[in-house]
Every structure is written in structure tokens, then in C-alpha cells.
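=== RUN LOG ===
request id: a7f3
mode: sequence -> structure
chains: 1
length: 406
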Amino acid sequence: MATNTQQMPKKIVLAYSGGLDTSVILPWLKERYPGVKLVAYAADLGQGAGELDGIEEKALKSGADEVIVEDLRREFAELYCFPMLRAHALYELDYLLGTSIARPLIAKGQVEAARKSGADAVSHGATGKGNDQVRFELTYMALGPDLKIIAPWKDPSFELTSREAAVEYANKKNIPIQQSKKKIYSRDRNLWHCSHEGAEIEHPDQRVSDEVWLMTVPPTKAPDKVETITVRFSSGNPVAFNGKELRGDDLIAALNEIGGRHAVGQVVMAENRLVGMKSRGAYETPGGTILYEAHKALEQLCIERDTMHFKQQVAIRYSELVYYGQWFHPLREAMQAFIDHTQKHVSGEVTLELYKGRATAVSAKADKSLYDPKLASFAMDGYDVTAARGFIDLFGLPMKIASMRR
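=== RESULT ===
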């Protein structure tokens, strides 16, 4: 069994963020497995706000023997976020999958770090009630099936079964943390989004405080003036913002800044977790929301009806695969091949207006548009109306016969 911990690991690569959970897990692993070597693996996915500042020193003080910090921002943007954007994947209509899409990349980095450092095990700090445990472990299984999986929250001897207990443990071990027992938000931030859980967010009958938001301002504090921007796409990928070509991570960062200023991309939703229960979260995805709106407007011009409708159905299943941590599943890879085929001609420029929490695509110009103004107009020039009569007769024939028989 991949999760078997009966055989003592010799060297563990822990997915380390410097947050509450992984900060307390480092010393706990030392206590649980005497003599084990610990590698703290931190992935820079564009967390920002100085989140990774001093992380190496903190990890070493917390019990790590080695620290690996990798800059994965461009890979995250162009090989994970953009394929998901091309699919136009949304989980349960609202969630732009910011945490979901990041976990497979972190876990992939862990497996590669284990190979390089000679580790025989990988570990994560995800709880036994959440989705992230599945996302990490499915990736380990897909890319490193020979590695042991150490999951402290599923270890019967793990006593830090609440965030309050983790805070107390951290204080006892003199581990610096940002959380307190009074108000604990669990946050996950990267280039694509920031998620928030805990405190009043867990109660659907309560309004989420304006203090929660980190990447965006509350709509009431957004400018009273519309701001107009342009985004250019090539084969479904965003390549330029306001006429300036940028690599993927820089483009998302620029859109985050301007979108955040206008309160774009705030979502509060109760979602269905993979493990069965519902949970409520607050999400900020300013740049991603802008890109989704722009991409949608361009697809409407460039993809014909039947392909478009089928792609929309595929997007639902695709979003489930991402949410469930099945990024490296053969089905997701096969779906991606279909999706990318649909994007061959999704190139052009979209103009959007940002105002008080909304990103609205107001115009779009495609390089190879299927939109014909002459056909779309009310004028009948060049259109055989007699063909429409026969088409309707045949298209409605099954309905007509069924009605007559009843």
C-alpha cells in the first residue's frame, strides 16, 4: 500500500509552505520518525506578499535538514493555468480552481526532489477531511509509485487535530506563525488566486468580512470610474496585455494588480468537496476572472456551434478531474488534446471594462472569426428563406408526430 508507514522512512520530502500546518509537521515528523532526514520543499507559485521570505531559515530552525525552494511561476502559468483556461474549466459554476491546479505541480516537484536527493518518501500537511490530501497523493501515485507517502493527519498518533492545537504546539516549539487562536483563517495563495477558509466563512448564515480579501479591495472601495483594458490571445493562450507581450506569469500578475484594484474576481461559495461534505470558501481570482471573460468572448467568435456545445460539456468533466486532483489522469490528458484542437483559431484581441467587481468583455476581434455581419443582420440578402421553411418542417417533424398521436 502506498500509504503504509510500517517501514520507517529514511528521508522524507515534505511539501513546505511555511504556513501553520507544515510548520508544525516538520518537528512532529522528527519526533515520529527518530533519525529521519527531512527535506523541506517549497514551490514559488507566485504567493507574493513576502510569503517565502526567510522560509529557508524558518524550515531549518523547525527541523529540516535540507531546504529546496524552486521558482515554478512560469511553469505554473503556462503549463497548468493556461491549459485549464483553454478548457474554460469552472467547478460548480464559480470556482476557478486556484488551489486545485497548484497541488499537482507542487507534488510533481516533490517527486523530482526526492529523486535528486535520494529520498524514499514524500509527505504533505493536508488534513484528512479536505481535498488537498487526494490531490497530493494521486500525483505521488502517478509520478512516484515507489515512494512512501507520509500523511500525518491520517496517522493515529498525530495529536494536532485542530488548528488551535497546532497553534499551541507551534508556540511551545517557538515556531513563528501568523495565526492566533482568536481568529484563524486558513489561506492558500498563489499566482492564480487566494483562497480563504475558517472563522466566519464557515458559517453560511454570516457575511464574509471585508477584512478577508488580500488580492482585491471590497467593491465599495473600488474606483468609481470604468477602466478599459485589452488582452490578446494566440491559439487560446493569452500573450499580451494592453498591447505589451508578456510571458504567462508576468501577464497574470499584471492582470491581478489591475483586477484587484477594481474588486474583480471575488467569489463566496459553498462547494461539494470530493470527500463528501460541503464546505464554504472565499476565493479571489482577479487576473483569472479577466482572462476567462476575455477567452469566452473570443471563443464565441471562433468555434462553431456543435464543437462549442460539446466543449462546454467536456469542461464540466475536466473541472471535476482538476478539482479531484487527477491532473495526470489519462482522461484529462486526452481531453486536453481535444480542447487544444478547438483552440487552433482562437486568436485575436478582446477589450474589457473593469468596474466595481465586474470584468465585462465589451468587444472582440478575432483573426479568423466565424461571425458574418451580413448573415447575422435582419436583411435577407443572400439568404434563401425557402430553405428555412423546409428545415423547420423536418426539424420539428418528431414533435409534430408525437403531438398528433397524443
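=== NOTES ===
Confidence is low (pLDDT under 50) at residues 1-5.
The first helix runs from residue 20 to 32.
=== END ===
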